[in-house]
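Worked example 2:
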Amino acid sequence: RPAREQHGQVAVAFQAARLQLMRPRVDLEVASAAGFSPGDRRRITEALATVGLDGSLARRRIDQLSGGQMRRVVLAGLLARRPRVLILDEPLAGVDAVNQGKLLRLLEDLRRDTGLTVVVISHDFVGLQGLCPRILHLNGGVLEPASAAAGGGA
């Protein structure tokens, strides 16, 4: 379908989650990103639960969150919009090993359970095989399957 018919169907999460967070509190951020009222506590709590965050974080200031929590708040707002495609730029950057595993499981579950298309932009795909069954390399401006790109040089 033409791109003009896809408005709102693609969500993008930046590498630096802090740069994507524009509101002072979690509830305001999630509601704003998702497009619903900040007074809709039920939807905010549901959005936070989707990404494994407790609803008690809703009133917390953004600057009181860890990097992993910030990344999840961004995802909560984006996923509450129910996009068909989620584009993630370096989704594991700045996330500790334990929370990397949790985030990957969350994304794998969402992809499997909802049919969400997940596109990951990364230079390091170690550990991403479960989330990314198909890997392409950008080689000289051309997308190639990983095996072809490996043989063709950098």
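Residues 26 and 57 are 7 Å apart (CA to CA). Strands lie at 10-13, 85-89, 117-121, 136-139, 142-145.
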